[in-house]
Task: structure prediction
Amino acid sequence: MNLESFEPMDPRLEQAVTEIHNDEPDTATIEAAAERVWARLAAAQHEGHEHIRGCDDFQALIPEYRAGRLPIARATLLKDHLHECVACRRVYEGRVVAMPVASQTRKASNTVRWATAAGVLLAAGLTVWFAMDQYGGRSGRAFIQAVNGTVYEVTADGNLRPLASGQDLPDGGEIRTAKDSDAMVQLRDGSVVELRERSGFSTVASANDLTIRLNRGSIIVQAAKRRTGHLYVATTDCRVAVTGTVFSVVSGVKGSRVSVVEGEVHVAQNNQDHVLHPGDQMATSLAIEPGTVRDDVAWSRNKDKLGQQLDKLRVSLQQVPLPAMRYSSKLLDRLPAETVVYGSIPNLGPYLAQTQALFGQNLAQSPELRAFWSTKGGDIDRTVEKLRAASEYLGDEIVMLGFAGENGQMDGMAFLAETKRDGFAEFLKKELPGAAVEMRPGLVAFGPHAASVARLASALDKPAGGFQGTPFYARIAEAYRNGAGMMLAADLSQMHNPQAEAQGVRYFLAEQKEVNKEMELRATVGFAGERPGIAGWLGAPAAMGSLDYVSPEATLVTGFVVKDPKAIVDQLSTVGGNFVGRGEGPANGVALTKELAASLGGEFSLSFDGPIFPPSWKLICEVYDPVAAQAALQHVVEAFNAELVKNGKKPLRTATETAEGRTYYMIAGADPNPITEAHYTFADGYLIAGPTRALISKALQTKMAGTSITRSSTFLALEPRDHYANYSALIYENLGKTLAPFAGLIGSFVPPQARGGGRGGPDPLAAISDMKPLLIGAYAEGDTITVAANGNMLAKGMSNMLGGNLLGVIGSAMPMGQMQGARRR
Result:
């Protein structure tokens, strides 16, 4: 470099620089400036972050600092700490490095202080600049774009405040949609979030990142393009990181599911990172089977646009079926159109025995099929037993068929299977001389009734049997697409069954299959039109926030999502009249109950969560307007008390008290008795009621700690495995551990020979002690309702569901049959 080419500095500038250099501010001025700088820096680094309280917290920041992702303010604090702390410097560098010794002169010390202060101010300024770069280029405004129905803000005191279209969103508050409602929300970074009904989220901003905390329900996110930072979606069990992406997230009782429409997302779960591309889908729980991305966004008001995007995506990889599952059938398309009963079993020797027992159980519990099976089924048991020896001749599947005859009456049954080797006809005639057999290329039709076999064989002579055009075929084909194990289906609309016709039932389909090495049972009932009874009350599967207040120790839990509480009151009043109060005016029970129902959201749970005696019941109801709900309850009590006084009886007692900033209410019998007391309070859009205030406090603590029954390993292990993330209704019982001590106590007073009625029957006390946990889930959609469980309680529970017998539904979840001996005694 040629130094001679530089011109000398202007004397005036040189003099100014010299004066600034020689300026020595006093110590008080320097310390005051430093304190202001550190206060500003601390405030900047604390915003959206946890406090740094010691070396452990500083060391936790080192990986992010190495990766260059640490915000400027926190990076400056970390570097300053590393300068002073030998232990943390050892962690950062792997060795101890001697730091330069500061000069002892006052001038050098002042220079260092000014340099440090300037650096800190620069860091704080850069933090602000980066924040402005991230958000300043946007509108910086988070607001409600559009509302269909009602959307609420859950305020800090637990109340619900309605929000309107165009209204700004509160910082950090939870936004929640009501039933039958959805909303479009724009975030401060320009991203747009679409909320499904009964969904809720809040946002947290930190440095360049923005996190959506999905507390419940379903959202579709159109993430804005970003120059820096990420948009995150966090659920209870995973975190999704995105930039400029369209995707869906569902957070439910069973877990979470992420579906990608456009772009790329990273899903972190259990310290593992999963990368998803367009058309990909991931569930955090084995209880949620993959569905389709199209189904996950079908509820969106932009579903047409999203559907067009999905049409351009790559086809999802075909699921690899489990050995015992069949995802298609070569036999289904060959059946005659008059098929009204369809059964399918895999061609496995051990499965044939299980199928024989399963068919017997389901038919014995189904009034629609029992009569036909006993009169038209023939010697099916003996036929199936012989088939076990014939498995080497037949293909992967054996189909059982029933045909409709004149006037809708059943007319015999037949079997159909593929053949994989010659000789089956000879084998069958040897083993079952009376059986009819018809061979076709690659196929065999056989059975105990020659006319039915001939009828099936005639359909096999045609390219297509005509069954494909029937609604019954479509239901069966859908079951195959979801994976078929053992299946039994009936088209009840063609069987002219008076009971089925009166209830509007069109078809019935029951399945048993192995999912993730667990045997599950599932039954679906389809209706001709609207669903009747309780089946008609149920809403579509939705998040159940009421379960967040139920502890893992609960022995019996029921949860429901209903379409319209007021409609239920109307139906009950038509059947039962005025069940609260009599006469006209404000004492009319139906009017008062409608007043209460108008404030409810349609989600309920009832559980027994504590000791058996006194009963530790717990009722949680979704409430959109706590003030109106309390007023309605007060009116009901006043009307009921008026009736009691009119009849010469003592009125109910009521009380209100405030504890720890929360208002508690009490309704109790006239005479003090803990069994006749009910306490309740309102929190986060729910009414929580129980026999004692202590039980309510425990419920609130369970919600706050996030340790509810939906996080219990016992509960999670029992959940049905399917593509649903939520339920329309569920029933869970774990009475065995509670009743076992009582059974043992009673057993010590009852001699063994006296148990089981003294006739050598099953010991009911032993059965009580051996009761296993059970969970039954129901899914109501359109004209169908499906019930799934891990025990064969389906037929009885379905019968009660169709008949509108709520107590029967609850009773079917409890193994009362095991207690019949005790009742007889």
